């Protein structure tokens, strides 16, 4: 039995479009949740700039979802860690994330699915949501941190998306995110004095998601 407040990690491998994908499942504490309440898929930052599924923002998102009763799955994108293939600029990564979506739905049928991402991962999750919506099976909700607006063509997202950005982000300037959000009438949560990597600000991600999730 796990101790209170701690989640369990289960590594697994998924067959992706370019070969095997290294994945980790984070389970909610069984002492708090008799059964999972939902599924969360978490996408990491850019593979060519050191992004992995063990990035601190990515793991914070996964742990946050596990803390509210979701099973949280994250993967190393193509060419990262033990995942096969090469970086595909978001296309193949979105295909692989859809495979993970299908896999998790098969493992946990009937549960709602949340999509969360950081930086490049926000592009992947926004593209996946656009694809799922066209298929008539959209995700329940998105959480986008350090949204890659202006750097890549991030599609519009649903009105209930939680968007969190740092005031002093110099990788993806806040103005780019505001320009992307404005035509959608989409609120953006701005963390004062926060850089792109949410250094010393990770607790704000957790707090906002927990507070806003079931509004």
UniProtKB/TrEMBL annotation:
Q: Which GO terms describe its molecular function?
A: hydrolase activity
- Do the record's keywords include Cytoplasm? no
Extract the Pfam families matched here. Hydrolase_4
Task: Tell me the keywords, alphabetical order.
Answer: Hydrolase
Stretches assigned to the Serine aminopeptidase S33 domain: 57-154
Q: Which PANTHER family match?
A: AB HYDROLASE-1 DOMAIN-CONTAINING PROTEIN, ALPHA/BETA-HYDROLASES SUPERFAMILY PROTEIN
* Record-given protein name: Alpha/beta hydrolase
Q: What is the lineage of its organism?
A: Bacteria, Pseudomonadati, Pseudomonadota, Betaproteobacteria, Burkholderiales
């Amino acid at each position: 039995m796990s101790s209170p407040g701690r989640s369990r990690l289960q590594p697994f491998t998924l067959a992706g479009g370019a070969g095997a994908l290294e994945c980790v499942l984070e389970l909610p504490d069984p002492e708090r949740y008799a059964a999972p309440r939902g599924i969360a898929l978490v996408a990491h930052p850019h593979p060519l700039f050191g992004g992995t599924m063990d990035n601190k923002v990515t793991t914070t998102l996964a742990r946050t979802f596990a803390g509210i009763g979701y099973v949280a799955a994250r993967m190393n994108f193509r060419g990262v860690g033990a995942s096969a293939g090469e970086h595909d600029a978001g296309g193949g990564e979105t295909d692989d994330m859809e495979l993970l979506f299908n896999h998790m739905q098969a493992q946990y049928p009937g549960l709602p699915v949340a999509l969360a991402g950081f930086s490049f991962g926000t592009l992947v999750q926004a593209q996946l949501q656009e694809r799922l919506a066209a298929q008539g099976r959209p995700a329940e909700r998105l959480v986008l941190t350090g949204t890659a607006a202006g750097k890549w063509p991030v599609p519009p997202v649903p009105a209930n998306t939680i968007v969190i950005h740092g005031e002093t982000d110099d990788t993806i300037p806040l103005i780019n995110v505001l320009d992307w959000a404005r035509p959608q009438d989409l609120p953006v949560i701005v963390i004062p004095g926060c850089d792109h990597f949410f250094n010393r600000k990770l607790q704000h991600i957790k707090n906002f998601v927990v507070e806003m999730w079931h509004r």
